[in-house]
């Protein structure tokens, strides 16, 4: 059913800390590893050729932001499905393959019903859906639905692969509908925000802004005053006198 | 957006076909016998060819029947229903014209309404996308309807009516081009709002996430064709609307239908190519490209 469920019992999602993300791409690799399973479920076309191209459910961008009062910051920016409340990718789907689960709010693609029309990828503002051109079906982040409920895994592994692997703890997973959950408290504390709210998608995922660095924190260094010695020093003094 | 031939043919041919069927169904051209057979055949042929072309765009066309299930939410699904309903509802009228069965005309009117509804659903597939501001505007359905009616009237040899509809199409195209140029900026999304970092200061791409292009970039960021946009706009306007308007007013209906029809189709293909090539998706903001 591609009608949205309205209010979901939970809103599972990610909180991504742009202050701590170092752009190491470990989450990209972990995501690819878990979801590909060595079975080319997230295929790479021509991986060793001159123009490799592949399907990824999570991509880490890097931006340069220049505050008015200091030097530029580099902000690493992971981008994946935000499991939107008003997910336009779901309602446009003609087949019912795209769906949002009423129980936890996860947005999924049922690959057996997908005709590969690509309309959902067009409807997503965040570029969260990529086509598996080999199988003709749409791929997207599942929030590792096949890990988080799997009781055969040790409890610490019952979270999305990207969250589990992040070496700096920049990714957090939890229920954003529950105001007392750790992720909700983090969002409240750090003023987490949604991407492109103007698109009306009501994303569940939140981003924590990079912390402000004070103007004095990283002063632009003055050029070193070099004092030449020895032969160079003598030449310097001589040439200076000319 | 990537101007894929399958979607260009789909929207252009089915729009023209359903537009022409409207004129046949309402009895605007009084045909009978084999003339009616060929006219209806042309209308059905164009509409069906367009619908077939759309399936080439699918990754799994063998499951296309599933596209009928989600009519409650999806314009693409509604389009599947209205197109089949229109083709089905028009069949008695087509047979009646061909075999002189003398069925009452209002039977055709119902089919004509469904044919127009199909054009409307096709337009809404694109209009609904907030992510593509150029499409997310009333000028999209306006131009789709104008194309269907003008093209249909030209093929149906409607003389002055065809001329008038071609001129309205010209107006719709000019509005679509002109207003469309401002819509991305008017939507107000920037790299700053896409990343949420705009409040700190100006944002610039430091490094792309991958060294090679990907599906998103191939599908949503199409810059190649925009270089010739001005020339193509002129070609579309002249071929699809202005010259056919003159031809339909001056030439005898049959001659006008053939010459203006061929010219109109060429212009329509150019316009539809531009419709995709010029459309910019907000996801390009993440890549610093549109
Ligand atoms: S981020 Fe995109 S794919 Fe994910 S739910 Fe929102 S609109 Fe759909
Ligand atoms: S590509 Fe698949 S999931 Fe996406 S809209 Fe088409 S049928 Fe639905």
Automatic annotation (TrEMBL), chain A:
Gene3D superfamilies: 3.30.70.20. Keywords: 4Fe-4S, Iron, Iron-sulfur, Metal-binding. It holds the Pfam family Fer4_4. Residues 12-40, 71-104, 105-134 form the 4Fe-4S ferredoxin-type domain. The keyword Methyltransferase does not apply. It comes from the Bacteria. This is Tetrathionate reductase subunit B. It comes from Pseudogemmobacter humi. The lineage of its organism: Bacteria, Pseudomonadati, Pseudomonadota, Alphaproteobacteria, Rhodobacterales.
From TrEMBL, chain B:
Gene3D superfamilies: Formate dehydrogenase/DMSO reductase domain. One of its GO terms (cellular component) is plasma membrane. InterPro entries: DmsC. Keywords: Membrane, Transmembrane, Transmembrane helix. GO terms for molecular function: dimethyl sulfoxide reductase activity. The chain crosses the membrane at residues 7-31, 37-58, 107-126, 138-155, 234-258. The keyword Hydrolase does not apply. GO terms for biological process: anaerobic electron transport chain. PANTHER family: ANAEROBIC DIMETHYL SULFOXIDE REDUCTASE CHAIN YNFH (PTHR38095). This is DMSO reductase anchor subunit (DmsC).
